[in-house]
Amino acid sequence: MAPSGIDQTLTAEERDDVKLHIAMFPWLAFGHILPYLELAKLFAQKGHQISFISTPKNIHRLPKLPPSLSPLINLVKLPSLNLPNDSESTSDLPREKVPTLKKAHDGLRDPLSDFLQSSKPDWLLFDFAAYWVPDMARDIGLPNVYFSIFTAASLGYIGAEVPDYRTEPDDFVVAPKWVPFPSTVAYRKYEVSKVFDDLTGMDDDVSVCYRIAKALRGCHAVAVRSCWELETEWLNLLRDLLGKPVLPIGQLPPAPPPNDNEEDENDESWRSTKRWLDLQPKRSVVYVAFGSEAVPSQDELTEIALGLELSGFPFFWALRARSDSVELPTGFGPRTREQGIVCTSWAPQLKILGHDSVGGFLTHSGWSSVVEALQFGVPLVLLTFTNDQGLNAKLLQEKMIGYLVPRDENDGSFTRESVAESLKLVVEKEGGKVYKDKAKEMSPVFGDRGVQNKYVDEFLGYLKAHNTTIWPKE
Fold first, then answer.
1. Are residues 276 and 176 part of one domain?
2. Alpha-carbon span 232 to 229, nearest angstrom
3. CB 219 within 8 A of CB 246
4. What would the pLDDT profile of 117-149 be if each residue is shown by its tens digit?
């Protein structure tokens, strides 16, 4: 066996000409799959070959690749998971069933290993759930990078070890002991109640904390969907904790929608939405969306709706509730017919956020939504539900980029008045100007394609300089 790494004596120009084969294996959630795909497209634009690996149903649901990139991105289907109702992603399951998806995902180790040994990529980028990848990759001589779509703050909060003292919910409501600088990044009590079993590994599942810590410790390097401009202290902390390269990859903003009048003319849903947005004053509309997996309770949905009504702002609510058991308050539709729109089908979020009538975004703090809003400088009002959203929101609040809707710390309840007042603060009041200013300041950081390209080039430079893949000679 002989190394096929890059000759370290190559000039920068010669190294630029080297093309890699990079395998990518995201967790089975579209909040992970789509950022991985954005990065795959950026790699392919630079001439690198990508093997994008998932299960059949997820591969089928990917957005269509640009014709110029499809020859360079090989969509690899591992075996189906054989779960009830052909479930292959978190969007197919209620939250309490996600542990079954993780266990089925762990069963992909052998077919993934078989594919990698037959295709011989130069690098493998993997996600937190596949904590077993570093051991598997070591067995077959494949260098690997844990590519985290979680923020550096979230990774720093979880840490590279599972400490003995973190056994009770109250242990998760403060910053961990290894964070050397003042920080409020931690879950609130009501958030911990929703994620405690996941964090600690109840129900015989491998805990999220263990999966992330094992991935961080076992990989050759860590790539983070982040940037120095936002998370300098957290990225440096991770480097200190791990003693290995921690490389920000940029925020991976989706490509802006094409300014294509013909395409717009053929899209009736966007045409009607745009007509309504065009009629609203600049920076007056509140856009509301909580992602495809957040499930507000009936009480929460009621207070959100009545808070929007009480605010008096025009609103566009992309309401994609996953449960038929919740409904809007009686009379809400007729009363707000002139004020706003409730869209229960797919909404073109990127186009809406990019419209100059939008003045605020009421969001669950899912990072992809945060990135989409901040690339257009839209200020954020934060209302979290589950997963890493609470950590994201605390980071954004700490940086004065987003305002958290006040809630009861114990049960998470909030009122229509707190929703309305939060929106008024951020969208129109002088006291909320800091959030508007910070959103504008972050716009080039989150949306500038040149900034993004620089981070990708630096990451690819690392992969080329440290490519030490060892495969048996034919």
1. no
2. 7
3. no
4. 999 999 999 999 999 999 999 999 999 999 999
**CA 296/CA 303 separation, integer angstroms:** 10
Q: What is the DSSP string of 376-407?
A: TT--EEE---STTHHHHHHHHHHTTSEEEPP-
CA dist., res. 312 & res. 316, Å (int)? 13
Q: Which domain holds residue 335?
A: 262-447
The rounded percent of the chain whose pLDDT value lies above 70 is 92
Q: Which residues, listed in sequence order, are joined to residue 471 by a DSSP beta bridge?
A: 2
Q: What is the mean pLDDT of the chain?
A: 91
Do 362 and 238 reside in the same domain of the chain? no
Active site (annotated) includes residue 135: no
Comparing CA positions, the residue from 84, 80, 123 lying closest to residue 105 is 80
Residues facing residue 404 across a β-bridge? 382
Return the percentage of the chain with pLDDT > 90, whole number: 79
Q: What CATH number does the domain containing 277 carry?
A: 3.40.50.2000
* H helix runs in 165-255, sequence order: 189-200, 208-218, 228-242
Considering the domain architecture, whether residues 242 and 294 belong to the same structural domain is answered as no
Check pLDDT > 70 for residue 428.
yes
Distance CA 455, CA 440 (A): 21
CA angle at residue 310 from 307 to 313, to 5 degrees? 95
**Which position among 32, 48, 105, 364 bears the catalytic label?**
32
- The single residue of 127, 198, 205, 388 carrying the catalytic annotation is 127
32 is catalytic: yes
pLDDT of residue 303: 98
Q: Residue 442 is encoded by which pair of tokens? A: 């972050």
Within 219-365, residue ranges assigned H as helices are 228-242, 261-265, 268-278, 298-311, 332-335, 349-353
Residues 269 and 283 in one domain: yes
pLDDT of residue 261: 54
Check: CB of residue 342 under 8 Å from CB of residue 315.
no
Instruction: Compute the C-alpha angle 132/147/107, nearest 5°.
Output: 30
Confidence of residue 2 (pLDDT cuts 50, 70, 90): very low
Please state whether beta strands 2-3 and 470-471 pair in parallel, antiparallel, or not at all (unpaired): antiparallel
Which has more pLDDT, 250 or 346?
Answer: 250
Residue type, 106: D
pTM of the entire predicted model: 0.92
